[in-house]
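We store chain and fold; example below:
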Amino acid sequence: MAEAQNIPAGSTTAGSIAVAAESTVATRMSAPPSFDVADFPVPHGREEEWRFTPLARLRGLHDGTAVASGEGVKVEVEAPEGVTVETVGRDDERLGKAGTPVDRVAAQAYSSFEKAGVVTVAKEAVLTEPIRISVHGQGGVAFGHQVIELGAFAEAVVVIDHTGDAVLAANVDYVLGDGAKLTVVSVQDWDEKAVHVAQHNALVGRDASFKSVVVTFGGDVVRIHPRVQYAGPGGEAELFGLYFTDAGQHQEHRLLVDHNTPHCKSNVAYKGALQGQDAHAVWIGDVLIQAKAEGTDTYELNRNLVLTDGARVDSVPNLEIETGEIAGAGHASATGRFDDEQLFYLMARGIPEAEARRLVVRGFFAELVQQIGLPDVQERLLAKIEAELEASV
């Protein structure tokens, strides 16, 4: 698979199958961040942040016509000892600490939820079992807000599992105290008609470590917007993602790592596979290194494997650097079909073509699956990948 670097914005590869582009300017939003939905104009699809999204399929989340209805979603939390789980009202001061909505849907979610979930891990607590949050769609429209907060030097793993059918707009906040370590695995395993739009905000404290693994399989339209800021020097953020886009699905992942503090690190790696007519994956990776963020070390990567004709990828890594005093910065984007040499090597050793293709795809995703660190979740996701591949044979 050929890697594309330093391609002028708007360049194309692989004909109508995929589009890869990158620039040296981070994507700008059409309105400044705000908690008030009235501060954002209704998008029409010409805006930079909406130009890839099929607005007509958002079921009214973008224009205010979607209102909470039906059973919405059922949220259940399983937490080990030492964790506080609360349901709070809109006036709770912990809400919104990690970040502000940057588009109309995120602001609509913030303006519309009634109760928020807050999960708190006490200072210096080191959890030996993961916190599991189940978000199950039961039909209808829902708006949500979830906060995960770790005290100083606490350590935790959180799994957020989305299943069922719903139209959901939500904000998720991760607040890490100094020296804390948080790993979050967010799985989007929706039914085929679900719509899910979410902004994930992480505020990483001094010398804290944040790892995010976003896994997207199901849904009609899924658009996830992870964002990272640093509250002190020495913070580290790793953002990993895995997506498998089927016929007719639109899966969009938009990331921003805002290096606003000196001597912090970030590493981004997202991989996707696509199959079927009108399968569409979008990956936007923005990294901003502000003038005051000396000593930054950052890298971002997106790779896509196109399994059939009729699929499309838009991959746009953006890097903006406002200071020359950095440790390192780079980005790369690559999109391609199966490596014929790999397939030939396997088939020459007696492995049938279908099995050889499965082995190649498993190997493509293996590094990211291992980042999850939870055997039961890893096995489930590998089984899901196998099922997707079986469907394409």
Summary: The chain has a mean pLDDT of 89. The chain is about 15% helix and 40% strand. Residues 340-393 form one domain.
